[in-house]
Write a structure and sequence with these properties.
Helices cover 35% and strands 20% of the residues. It contains 34 helices and 34 strands. Helix 14 (439-447) packs antiparallel against helix 16 (455-477) and helix 29 (806-817) crosses helix 30 (834-847).
Length: 943
């Protein structure tokens, strides 16, 4: 082994499935760890090296601080030497808060706020003029210059266009020794009991002084005193009126409009922050969107009557107070609750929706008496709005949201900021305009900014713009030129979020750090791969060690050192099968090496499928950056949607097509992005979206429960002779209900130890030793195995074990077919990777009886998959298509694209340069296109 100061030595690592391995990783190099999915790459990189780095960092804290952090377990490893501080850049670390945006994560927005607070010009929102501000000395000189030899009144404005009688105000002004005020343009003496009409709007100013302006010392002194007093009472604003012409001039210490006299506070960085009360728009609290009542959701069918449940929030007629009130409103406006809603008068609808109070009498013709009624109704729409805004219960808020739409805020038009903040401009643009530009546009704007600034602005802004330019360049380098700063961070994909963090880290220019990255190339088009690899090499060249878990051919070929873990996955993996430079890797006969050298490859099909001749046609999609796209999806084929990152693939499929289909088949509530029409829905009978979200968020969920094979296994155990004698039902074998489960850990097999500030830690239950069930339940055996033994079987073992039980065999066989034979049936879903979770969902779908008319949507299914796993996955997808189903895949991976029957390429660039269909057809037709980036890379694969 090399000298230990040049390497990180890991000795005896046994975390998860690692087989007591020793590995030495060269420092200050770009090192790639590769291998089959589930072979133990993440166990080595994250659960061993990163976990130990974290633990050592926490050990440097004082004992007092450590008690709040809880003890981090030592990873199961004998020794790690040569470890430097570790930073992990994973995929799942962005904030889901609606307040977090690309600008706030990268801190570029913070620098922009500083730039606008210090170097922007302010304009009046009334007249559009440049705002001015003066010191007291300048105001004095201006008054002497403008009004020399004239008589003037100096006034302090106290009330501006507001209603009220202001009796107390006049009394207070009088007490302070002032004798005159100007009310609505007319100067009056202050008298006792003076007040104005409380229902009209008024302008009130105190008359501070009336004087003749001469250029002598006395005038000078008196004027200075009067200015000071006027500023004190007028909140840093004062007025001067010339006696003869009645010309009004405003002066202010803060920013002020010279014509209308409105003033802004002096700008501070938090006046431009939508997360601070000083800058956030008051209507939407800085979120940019508000929830508005949608009457169509409250009254889905205007032809229905109130009694039939025409008002969706109320449902059908029940004998309760609300319906009695509606009957009373009917008495007043002469309608019955059995009448169709669209026949009810507008006045009545106004009270039903927005509420009202009223008392009225109705004469009864038959009895000759009058009956008194009283309406006190909050209004249905009003009630929903109040529940949404004020309720503390999440369930009630969700209920109220069902009748509302999220729309851009009407006050700030989605810019999130107060009106004043938007009238501060640099080079004619405000901070919201800059936030909405693509990173590439913004970079160009900053490149030419210096020429447009005044000398004073340049001097102030030089350091700020330098920082902003550097950070924008880092975002360009990792291929994120299509994002805008205002893009909400919860709408970012895992790969994008990871690359933003990478850009931020490159920006911090740390040296001597070990960076660990988890598949940074996810969601990147081959074209942008080069940029990403250059960014990582840049991190390495300034003196850092970079450790990347990756399956990408280019990345492996450019690495300084490659560690291949295998040979298979799960318990058959966890060994180092080769390590060395990429050249040395090629000499080995590992699966990775064979795919790299081309010995093994995914074969291109001899001929493409013709489909069933039917199509699904989407017309006029205009969401986000889509430019009125019309696209046909031929059914019964494997369709691949390609294009560079940010070109609009997800908008077209995940945000337009899927919500439309989901709404049509399953009444989904997500609103699709705008489109004109869709045709051909009658040719498919359901839509299934298989994404990489976890199959469950607690240790209780596992592949057996998710695929529903566990129900069948429990039924099987109830039919064993011993269980029948004891009278055990299926519930006895469930770890989610009391009876058969271990009560100490409530059937989860682990105890949760809550850590404040850190994620929860799970430790094995000491009563059942992780078996989940109590002694009596474990005594029931089938073929010598207890229910706990079955949960601990790998899928491969289960396939043989349940060979003669078709119901169970069919389900476990499909899990094996998607390449997950190595996971155990009871493996906690929290320990499954995204790719594994997605394949379990696929297996669940495959095991169902299908009609052959299903439309499947998969977004980047190859994430986290090795070349060999992609082959297995594509075999499964091919089976689905061969049964007549349509599978639509959004993908960058050439191995998948070359297998497609039909490709839709969207581009050309990302962001504003995207949103068009560049070309469509079979792979053979696509590669003839000269413009498409996908075509260039596909050509190499097909030849």
């Amino acid at each position: 082994m090399q000298q230990s100061n040049d390497t990180i030595e890991v000795l005896g690592a046994r975390v998860h499935n690692l087989k007591n391995i020793d590995v030495s990783i060269p420092r200050e190099k770009l090192v790639v760890i590769t291998g089959l999915s589930g072979s133990g790459k993440s166990s080595l990189a994250f659960d061993t090296i990163y976990a130990e780095g974290q633990r050592r960092y926490i050990e440097t804290f004082s004992a007092y601080a450590r008690q709040f952090l809880g003890g981090l377990e030592r990873p199961d490893v004998d020794k790690i030497d040569g470890l430097s501080p570790v930073i992990a850049i994973e995929q799942k670390t962005t904030s889901k808060s609606p307040r977090s945006t690309v600008g706030t994560i990268t801190e570029i927005y913070d620098f922009l706020r500083l730039l606008f607070a210090r170097a922007a010009d302010a304009y009046s929102y009334n007249t559009g003029e440049l705002m001015v501000s003066y010191s007291d000395e300048q105001i004095k000189d201006l008054i002497i210059e403008s009004f020399k030899g004239k008589r003037i009144n100096i006034l302090a404005p106290v009330i501006r266009s507001r209603k009220g009688h202001y009796a107390e105000l006049f009394q207070q002004i009088g007490k302070q020794g002032f004798v005159k005020v100007r009310v609505n343009g007319e100067i009056k003496d202050i008298v006792t009991g003076m007040k104005v009409d409380r229902y009209k709007t008024h302008d009130i100013e105190i008359v501070i002084d009336r004087m003749q302006i001469e250029s002598d010392e006395d005038t000078d002194k008196r004027l200075a005193e009067s200015i000071k007093t006027a500023m004190h009472h007028g909140d840093d604003v004062m007025m001067v009126i010339e006696q003869e012409s009645q010309e009004v001039r405003y002066f202010s210490r803060t920013l002020m409009c010279p014509t209308s006299g409105i003033s802004y506070p002096n700008p501070e960085p938090n006046n431009f922050s939508f997360n601070s009360p000083k800058g956030a728009c008051d209507a939407c609290n800085g979120l940019g969107t508000i929830n508005q009542i949608n009457l169509k959701k409250i009254i889905p069918d205007p032809k229905a009557s109130i009694k039939q449940g025409g008002f969706a929030p109320l449902g059908e007629y029940k004998s309760n107070w609300i319906f009695k009130q509606l009957e009373t409103i009917g008495e007043k406006f002469s309608f019955k609750i059995t009448d169709p809603i669209d026949t009810i008068s507008e006045e009545a609808m106004e009270i039903i929706l927005n509420g009202g109070k009223d008392k009225f009498t109705v004469a009864s013709k038959t009895l000759g008496i009058t009956k008194e009624y009283k309406i006190e109704f909050e209004g249905i729409a009003h009630f929903i709005k109040n529940q949404h805004d004020d309720s503390t219960s999440n369930a009630i808020k969700r209920w109220a949201k069902e009748f509302m739409d999220e729309v851009d805020c009407t006050e700030c038009k989605g810019s999130r900021l107060k009106k004043e903040a938007l009238y501060f401009k640099v080079n004619d643009l405000n901070i919201a305009d800059l936030s909405q530009m693509d990173i590439s546009e913004l970079t160009q704007w900053f490149a030419v900014l210096d020429v447009k600034l005044s000398d004073k602005q340049k001097a102030i802004a030089v350091e700020i713009t330098k920082e902003i330019r550097a950070r924008l360049q880092f975002l360009m380098d990792v291929g994120l030129n299509y994002l805008s700063l205002s893009r909400s961070s919860k709408s970012l994909s895992g790969g994008e979020a990871q690359r933003i963090r990478l850009a931020t880290q490159i920006g911090s220019q740390l040296v001597g750090v070990l960076y660990i990255l988890d598949e940074p190339s996810i969601g990147l088009h081959q074209r942008d791969n080069e940029r990403l690899i250059n960014s990582l090499e840049n991190l390495r060249d300034i003196g850092n060690s970079v450790l990347v878990v990756e399956h990408d051919k280019d990345m492996i070929a450019r690495a300084d050192w490659v560690i291949d873990i295998g040979p298979k996955a799960g318990r058959f993996g966890g060994r180092i099968i080769s390590e060395g430079t990429p050249k040395q890797l090629m000499q080995e006969h590992t699966v990775t090496a064979q795919y790299m050298s081309g010995e093994m490859k995914i074969e291109v099909p001899k001929k493409r499928r013709f489909g069933n001749g039917k199509t699904l046609k989407l017309t006029g999609a205009t969401g986000n950056n889509l430019k009125n796209v019309t696209v046909e999806f031929p059914l019964g084929k494997l369709i691949c949607v390609t294009g560079v990152s940010g070109s609009g693939k997800s908008t077209l499929i995940n945000e337009t097509l899927y919500p439309i289909l989901n709404e049509y088949f399953f009444n989904g509530v997500k609103k699709p992005q705008p489109f004109k029409k869709i045709e051909g829905l009658e040719h498919i009978d359901k839509v299934i979206d298989i994404d990489q979200s976890p199959i469950g968020r607690t240790p209780r969920s596992n592949p057996a429960t998710y695929t529903d094979v566990f129900s069948e296994i429990r039924s099987l155990f109830t039919q064993t002779p011993e269980a029948m004698i004891r009278g055990y039902k299926a519930g006895r074998f469930s770890f989610n209900v009391s009876g058969g489960r271990c009560e100490t850990c409530e059937g989860s097999g682990v105890r949760t130890i809550e850590m404040s500030f850190l994620p929860d830690v799970y430790v094995e239950c000491e009563t059942c030793m992780g078996k989940r069930f109590n002694r009596e339940t474990l005594e029931i055996r089938f073929k010598g195995k207890s229910i706990s033994d079955v949960l601990n079987m790998t899928v491969d073992e289960a396939v043989d074990f349940f060979e003669n039980i078709p119901k169970i065999h069919r389900k476990v066989k499909t899990i094996q077919d998607v390449g997950l034979g190595y996971i155990t049936l009871g493996q906690q879903s929290t320990t499954l990777s995204g790719g594994e979770a997605q394949r379990i969902k696929l297996a669940t779908e495959l095991s169902k009886k299908d009609t052959g008319n299903t439309f499947y949507i998969l977004d980047e299914p190859t994430t986290g998959l090795h070349f060999e796993d992609i082959r297995v996955l594509m075999d499964v997808i091919t089976k689905l298509v061969d049964k007549g189903n349509t599978v639509l895949v959004i993908e960058h991976n050439m191995d998948v694209i070359k297998l497609a029957d039909y490709i839709i390429d969207i581009g050309l660039e990302g962001g504003k340069g995207g949103g068009d269909v560049i070309c469509k057809g079979t792979p053979e037709e696509i590669i003839k296109n000269k413009k498409s980036f996908t075509a260039q890379f596909l050509k190499k694969e097909l030849n």
